[in-house]
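> forwarded from #structure-qc
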């Protein structure tokens, strides 16, 4: 099949390359000339493990081409995946401007029957909006179908997630479109959920919000455990082994960040409010998540004598999680802002994010030199197995604040460090 992917971010590029692996011919369309040039050259404009090799393989084999010629791309392809961003609007709702622009272009250039698939995370009712916008912009009534097919991949493990999904959700009312989608995914061996577009759109929000809920639950529980000197990691293990609960997304830390959870939880809250049925449980999820970095900073402050003024704090990790250079909604920046507000002297490090800020250091050693405390804010493997024996003499005071509960606390304590994690007793 000839497939057009509109939007060449994490979701679009990964989806396109996965379809190449399954023998399809892909065109990647983006209005951002810079991104297209980089991709045409066989390079990624973002960091994602494993994706670079696949891009090289399929660009060389001409299984994937990149363009910014919208008209040609729409005319030459039969299935069009919309993978553009849906950023958060001022009121918390998802901003559909980019999705509507794509729909408008499809309406203007459609020349034969096509299946239009929304892969971007879009609010309930978007399939209907896309249908209307295409119809409004058509010169002649050429038939088409709109399908909701949400993507569940995670940054940092996008390739594996997209190659081996837990399920494929297909939301459409058209038998023709459903048959084409089944054909497209015929080599994927996972359960299929076939439903209405609205339900499919809701599944994506409900999934992300549920995972965010698990994180906020364990984070708030961690505060209670902290008071009771209980190790919250044991609680995660103890409840996660119950198959009805499951072990994933129960790691206490500094709160969730990224381009999806914060935005999607807010968008679902907004949708629910619009329907007059507020999702109070998700409002609590957001509240706990907003408080979590503040709670951790308070612990740092108390441990350092009640003030952070002129204290040198080494912050390890800027990305919102390991294995990505994405810093969107990263708890590390909430931490940084707060430390600067408290007049601390901040030094930062990240293996992938190069912020260009004056406080960013090239090496971990440089970052911790002269520090009164070291804070681990991103769960990069690099920070798990540090040579603590070498780190300690570099620091002014041997304080470790482990915002990801990832350091071997017994080992560092043996070496004479003072250690505080997130209820990691
Ligand atoms: C998420 C969803 O997992 C994915 O299905 C969807 O398609 C996009 O949104 P992503 O944002 O890439 O993926 O990252 P994810 O691995 O889900 O982590 C989100 C945030 O939660 C990160 O800040 C992470 O550090 C945090 N997290 C995750 C925890 O704090 N504890 C956990 O146990 C798991």
């Amino acid at each position: 099949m000839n497939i057009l992917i509109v939007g060449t971010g994490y979701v679009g590029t990964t989806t396109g390359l996965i379809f190449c692996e399954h023998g399809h011919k892909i065109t990647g369309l983006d209005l951002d000339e810079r991104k297209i040039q980089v991709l045409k050259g066989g390079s990624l404009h973002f960091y994602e493990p494993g994706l670079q090799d696949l891009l090289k393989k399929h660009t060389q084999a001409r299984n994937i081409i990149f363009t910014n010629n919208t008209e040609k791309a729409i005319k030459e392809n039969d299935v069009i995946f919309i993978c553009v961003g849906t950023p958060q609007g001022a009121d918390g709702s998802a901003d559909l401007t980019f999705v509507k622009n794509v729909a408008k272009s499809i309406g203007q250039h459609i020349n034969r029957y096509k299946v239009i698939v929304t892969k971007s995370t879009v609010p309930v009712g978007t399939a209907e909006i896309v249908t209307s916008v295409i119809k409004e912009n058509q010169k002649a009534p050429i038939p088409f179908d709109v399908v909701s097919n949400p993507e569940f991949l995670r940054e940092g493990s996008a390739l594996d997630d997209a190659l081996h999904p837990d399920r494929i959700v297909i939301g459409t009312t058209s038998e023709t479109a459903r048959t084409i989608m089944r054909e497209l995914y015929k080599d994927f061996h996972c359960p299929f959920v076939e439903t209405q577009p609205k339900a499919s759109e809701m599944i994506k929000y409900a999934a992300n919000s549920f995972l965010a809920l698990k994180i906020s639950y364990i984070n708030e529980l961690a505060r209670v455990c902290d008071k009771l000197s209980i190790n919250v990691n044991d609680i995660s293990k103890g409840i996660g082994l119950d198959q009805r609960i499951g072990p994933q997304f129960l790691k206490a830390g500094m709160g969730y960040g990224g381009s999806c959870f914060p935005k999607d939880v807010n968008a679902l809250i907004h949708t629910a409010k619009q329907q007059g049925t507020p999702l109070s449980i998700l409002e609590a999820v957001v509240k706990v998540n907003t408080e979590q970095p503040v709670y951790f900073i308070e612990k740092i402050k108390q441990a350092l004598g009640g003030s952070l003024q002129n204290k040198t704090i080494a912050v390890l990790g800027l990305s919102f999680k390991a294995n990505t250079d994405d810093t969107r909604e990263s708890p590390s920046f909430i931490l940084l802002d707060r430390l600067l507000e408290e007049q601390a002297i901040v030094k930062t490090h990240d293996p992938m994010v190069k912020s260009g800020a004056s406080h960013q250091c090239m090496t971990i050693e440089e970052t911790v030199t002269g520090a009164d405390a070291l804070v681990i804010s991103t769960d990069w493997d690099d920070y798990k197995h540090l040579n603590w024996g070498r780190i300690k003499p570099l620091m002014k005071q041997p304080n470790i604040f482990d915002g990801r509960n990832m350091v071997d606390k017994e080992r560092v304590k043996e070496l004479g460090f003072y250690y505080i994690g997130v209820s990691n007793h």
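QC bot note: The first helix runs from residue 10 to 21. The radius of gyration is 24 Å.
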